[in-house]
Design brief:
Rossmann fold, 19% strand, 8 helices, 7-stranded mixed sheet
């Protein structure tokens, strides 16, 4: 482990839960678990409850410091959300981690309004990616409108009452035209995506992560992530891909062996290079690293010293 981090085994980390209550039910967990996730309430209790307690302590301290600054300056308090970034590879479980933390953090009295922003909405539309010759590099840093994402985070951090963000559809694999979602001064905002810990390719001065108060990298060995990616592809082939509106509907007719080969090729030619070149190198920039084992559950937690 990097000397800049202190690593905890799962059993040791679980003791740091203290008396934090479990507010997530099995039924609710079923609704937020990813399509291939094996996350259960034991993992929530042993991994995510201690993490939510740590985050609550950070959030409370940050809110107190903001109050001190307002008092000193004699200014009216402006709600400033605490922003958490969650990064990691495709298929590693970032989205489930984000949704679980959103649910747990929203149960704390001091910050009940917890928003979730995925960076998929900041991918350039497919037509623009085609024009730029970037469709085969979708998910790489250059395929995102990073400047627009930074503008969004700047507005949120500035306490703007309403911030409108673009919407991405995984069904049609594209930005939804003329559609936005609104962020309305959350107490906490979780920002989840491949590139959240990367720099801005158009600027050497500002990073998306500059707006984060805390960041999490979800990690696993590359061979495991590839296995999970292929497994997820096969599950989607039998479900979402069969939808007539799905961008990937042509994969629905593939046999299992052929589909697995296609998924493996996509991983080897697109996702693996992106992970090695762009995503994994950002791992040391995180405040916390959640490392998963072969059963897709978190085995160790590392905190930046």
């Amino acid at each position: 482990m990097d000397h800049r981090f202190e690593e905890f085994g799962r059993a040791e980390w679980a003791t740091l839960r203290s008396s934090t209550p479990l507010t997530l039910t099995a039924e609710h967990l079923d609704g937020i678990r990813g399509i291939q996730e094996r996350l259960d309430l034991d993992e929530v209790e042993e991994v995510y409850l201690p993490l939510s307690r740590l985050l609550n302590l950070h959030i409370t301290k940050t809110q107190q410091l903001a109050t001190v600054a307002d008092t000193f300056l004699g200014t009216a308090p402006v709600p400033v959300p605490y922003i958490i970034g969650i990064g990691g590879s495709v298929a590693v479980g970032k989205s489930t981690t984000a949704r679980v933390l959103q649910s747990l953090l929203s149960s704390w009295d001091d910050h009940p309004n917890v928003g979730l922003l995925t960076t998929d909405g900041y991918l350039y539309p497919n037509a623009e990616l085609e024009r730029l010759g970037l469709m085969e590099r979708k998910g790489f840093p250059e395929s995102y409108n990073t400047g627009a994402l930074i503008d969004t985070l700047r507005a949120v951090k500035s306490g703007d009452p309403v911030v409108r963000v673009p919407v991405y559809s995984h069904l049609v694999y594209d930005i939804v035209p003329d559609t936005v979602e609104e962020i309305r001064q959350p107490d906490v905002l979780i920002v989840e995506g491949l590139n959240v810990l990367q720099g801005n390719p158009n600027s050497s001065n500002l990073f998306v992560s500059d707006f984060f108060d805390f960041s999490i990298y979800v990690d696993a060995e590359e061979a495991l992530i590839k296995q999970w990616y292929v497994e997820r592809f096969l599950l989607l082939r039998a479900s979402v891909f069969s939808n007539p509106d799905s961008y990937f509907r042509h994969y629905a007719e593939l046999g299992s062996a052929e589909a697995a080969e296609v998924a493996s090729d996509i991983w080897d030619n697109i996702n693996a290079p992106n992970l090695r070149q762009n995503i994994a190198p950002t791992r040391p920039r995180a405040s916390c690293i959640l490392t998963k084992g072969a059963n897709h559950s978190v085995s160790t937690v590392a905190l930046r010293k």
